Amino acid sequence: MDDDETRPPTRLDPEADDTTIQDDPSSTVLDLTSFQLHDLDSVELPPSLTELDLTSNRLSNLDPRIGQLSNLKKLSLRQNLIDDNAVEPISRWDALSGLEELVLRDNKLTKIPDASIFRKLFVFDVSFNEITSLHGLSKVSNTLKELYVSKNEVTKIEEIDQFYDLQILELGSNRLRVMENLQNLTNLQELWLGRNRIKSVNLCGLKFIKKISLQSNRLTSMKGFEDCIGLEELYLSHNGIAKMEGLSSLVNLRVLDVSSNKLTSVNDIQNLLQLEDLWLNDNQIDSLEDLTEAVSGSREKLTTIYLENNPCAKSPNYSATLRQIFPNIEQIDCNVFA
Q1: How many other C-beta atoms can be found within 10 angstroms of the C-beta atom of residue 230?
Q2: Which of 34, 82, 195, 290 has the most CB atoms lying inside 10 A of its own CB?
Q3: Please, what are the domains in the chain?
Q4: Tens digits of residue pLDDT in 267-284
């Protein structure tokens, strides 16, 4: 860790009476979160800054002085009023070429901004905007490790081929229908695609991914995860899945969420010896008797199970039966045991 990173952040008082927000000229971190600033005229920007956090203000333009902060590594403009025109100057600010984290989450963008100037970018966040296409991502540095484009209007996964080092891809709450163009993301650890319109699973050979979310899509089958032997967390709630299958090879799975589907029985998880959390609520599972055999591999390991809003949850001694099946259970539905 660099010495600068060990210094405490400067948190200024938004209720201060000073007309000018001052800071130590040698400060490396300036946090102006929730100051409701319309501009930065009252703010001093020390040239030593490595982090500038302008979250939750009322900024509609970028102060050109930001473009002179040659030491800046992290810039957050989250939850402001920045539109495409307002962010455009950043593509010409050569002094910021060493920026590692750029957050434009929750603004008024309709397209991916030009981030080609940043040669060491690790984190790029443009979630919660009105972006309709991923056009422009091809210009982003291949150093990127985390990409967030959730809650937009994107219809197609594209222009991500160069992100060989990408570890987190968040494209939830868009208009995607197909999982595609993921084959080069060989280091991907987390893939978040919830709240889209995806009908089938295509992981394009991503065998070592650890977390996948496809909640609230249009899946009717669980097929497609068989080769993901490193998978630890799988979230498939709120789909149209009628059968549990393709899970037996996922021996590292710790969390499985298949709630709010069309399941009538529990299958194909006998081999999941590491399973800790199992979410089966809001399905059509009739019997608790078959559950013992179905979860035989994880009986000792399981600590959380959700089965509420299934016919079997109305069985006499429902909770007591589950506590017998799972000797180390800590939570059944919303009930937590000491």
Answers
A1: 15
A2: 82
A3: 1-198 (3.80.10.10), 207-338 (3.80.10.10)
A4: 999 999 999 999 999 999
